[in-house]
Amino acid sequence: MALAYIATKEHSPQESKQAKAFIDSFLKRSLHNLQEEEIQRHTDYKAVVLEHKYNGKKTQKKKKSKGLSAKQKREMKLFHLKPEQQRSVFLPLNELWKQYIRDLCNGLSPESNPQMIQSKLLKADFHGAIVTVTKSKCPSYVGTTGIILQETKHVFRIVTQHDRLKVIPKRNSVFTVEIDGFITHVYGSKFQLKSSERSAKKFKLKGTIDL
Amino acid sequence: MYMHLEQCPRHLLVCEKSNFTNEKSRHGIHVQSHYFNYQVNMLIPECAVLPSELNALVNSFEKYYLVKNVPVYELVEQQFIDRFVKKGSVYALSYNTQIDQDNTVALLPTGTLILSVDKDTYEELGLEGKSSQYSHKAVMRYVITVDLKSLVPGTAKNKRVMWALKEKLLVKCDFLIMWNSPGDEDFSLSTHFEKYQCKEHAPAVSTKVLRDLPYPVIQSCDLRGNPEKSCDASEFMEWLGAVTSEIECNNEASNFLSTFCCPEPSSVMEKAYLCTVTGFLLPENICKLLEQLCHYFDEPKFAQWTSLTVHGFADSPVSWGSAEHGFHKGGENFYNFVVFKNRDYWLQMAVGSHDGCPP
Amino acid sequence: MACHERMEDDSGKYERIVHKNGSSYHYLKISLEFEEDTSIRLNSAQFKQLIISSLKQLFGEIGAALPFDVLQFEENTLSAVLRVYNRDLVKVWSALTLLGSYQSEMCAFRVQQVSPFLLALCGNSRT
């Protein structure tokens, strides 16, 4: 008994009382016709691994919360803007956007390189910008001006001077953005991306483009 | 060789026959609804001196103005509408603008303003219009119509039209303009367009007497012609074209240069009087001329018929009424009256490929 | 091709015929331009010969055999009126366009007006 105890103790320093009790009773039961000494002799100097315990790092798989699916978002009308919006509410947003663009371009001055500004604007966020539709295949969109409240893959939602929310498709329209005297034309058809995806996209230079 | 090489664009020729005394005769309507006339050719056979009444009419064609660099919004201005459009009939047509490449503007006497604009202008202008009837898959031309008489000042539509033409895109062109007023003239076009370079022009008249002219025999009752007795209307028209362009038409069949002949059966007239008026001509004047031409036969004459050809502007956005007109290859839109002794008349109306069927 | 519609009224005289592509000819008003001032003078026969040779260059013997008429020719301005069959219009026009020289002098044909009606040639508002 003592030996078995030792053996176990030698090989696994962290013994458990349960295991010791189990071994004792097991040997007694299976070798009941043998003397205690003989049992002792049988197990003498034999390494018997009685308990194996792996004590490595425990990997705890945490389930990441996925948030809401697109469908759920849609059902909850998360991106739904109410048709009545007040332009005055968004004027500070426009100021914020202007400041953001100025920071992005390291300050706008008449000497700034227009191409550099354009390439920055291409990747910039447009929420809060004041845009005007200058050209469109549909004439009734032409001349609409407002602050962009939301940009999706295919449309801009803007609030006009008359506090009306207008949805303007990007396709087949040319938008104009004015900031500190720099006027930029945005070809909507080439802009049909989510703003997050747009920042990563590489735009190719093209000689002439139709709407 | 290739079959498609042998095709050519369609053209239409409408021949009508009627009598001036016929109540249902529509000759007046046809003349009145062909708004923009460039040239009138009058051919009177067996005549060397124009009768005084006709001569007076020919020289009394109304004067027209050529105003340079006028922004189109001037025609939409309320003052212009009140002074001129509502008080008479204004004819205005942009000058030196080619309808197959430039923006063309026309103001019809009915008070309709027609802008025929190219695709880029249309997209930028922001006025609702229709795509041109004669465009292919990719529409390159649009037609915008604005009814000036129904335009109420202060309405959204009026503001939009003014905004588009004045602030959005300043469309400017030279205008041929004429005002047919009912009588009292408080204002004249020249004072109204004082700001712009405005010049008065009188139609140019040129006359010619042709001698020993072979001519095809025609009979008023037989529009289709008869191989033995008379020529048909289209043969006659070809001959008339040759006469007005002074093309020799007595060639032999073996001639190397040309085998063009006067259609058979033919005869020879001793002399013929050809009178041409060129300018920006009012349909009202042409109407009067046509009427007078009927009275030509009040006194006995040698001539069996007289003819009056009226050419429209090739770059006008309309041909007859408000039917759309395009240029394509020639932009021809003209009509020809053959007035017979017995007050019968033939009317031939011809258009090219970018035009609807004449009325 | 012609469609007829007859409207019998009281006098029984009104008649209307619509000819669609009624004319079998097309008429061209053209002029010949030399790049530099030259002493070259052409008479009408030489002028026609020049057009025939340009047709021959482009379409070979068949092109040279295309029938057409020089209705009018002015030696001073080197302008002319041609009459061609509808089916030959494209060929004649292309041959005129592609001609580049006469007696090793650079020249070009200008097609000023094309119409299926001879009458249309005298009233050209686009000049």
Shape of chain A: rod-shaped
Say how many strands of chain B there are: 15
Low-pLDDT stretches of chain A: 1-13
What is the SS-derived class of chain A? alpha+beta
Instruction: Give the biggest sheet of chain B.
Output: 8 strands, antiparallel
Cα-atom radius of gyration of chain A:
37 Å
Major pleated sheet of chain A: 6 strands, antiparallel
Briefly note the structural class of the backbone of chain B: alpha+beta
Strand fraction of chain B equals: 25-35%
Strand order in the sheet with the most strands of chain B: 7-8-6-5-4-9-3-10
**Percent of sequence in beta strands of chain A:** 15-25%
pLDDT averaged residue by residue of chain B: 91
Question: How many helices of chain B in DSSP terms?
Answer: 8
Estimate percent helicity of chain B.
Answer: 10-25%
User: What value does the Rg of chain B take, in angstroms?
Assistant: 22 Å
GO molecular function (chain C): ribonuclease P RNA binding
Keywords (chain C): tRNA processing
Protein name (chain C): Ribonuclease P/MRP 14 subunit
InterPro entries (chain C): Pop8-like_dom, Rnp2-like_sf
Short description, anyone?
The complex is a heterotrimer of chains A (211), B (359) and C (127). By secondary structure, chain B is an alpha+beta fold.
Q: How would you characterize the overall build of this protein?
A:
- The complex is a heterotrimer of chains A (211), B (359) and C (127).
- Chain A is built from seven helices and six strands; from the N terminus they run ααααααββββββα.
- By secondary structure, chain A is α+β, with helices and mostly antiparallel strands.
- Chain A has a six-stranded antiparallel sheet with strand order 4-3-2-1-5-6, with helices on one face.
- The longest helix of chain A is centred in the middle third of the chain and has 18 residues, at 87-104.
- An eight-stranded antiparallel sheet of chain B has the order 7-8-6-5-4-9-3-10. Chain B has a seven-stranded antiparallel sheet with strand order 1-15-14-13-2-12-11, sandwiched between helices.
- In chain B, α2 (52-59) packs antiparallel against α8.
- Chain C has one domain: Ribonuclease P, Pop5 subunit (Alpha-Beta Plaits, 2-Layer Sandwich).
- Helix content of chain C is 24%, strand content 38%.
- Chain C has a five-stranded antiparallel sheet. In chain C, strands 1-2 form a two-stranded antiparallel ribbon.
- Mean pLDDT of chain C is 87; it is low at 1-12.
- Chains in contact: A-B, B-C.
- β1 (12-19) of chain B pairs antiparallel with β2 (15-20) of chain C.
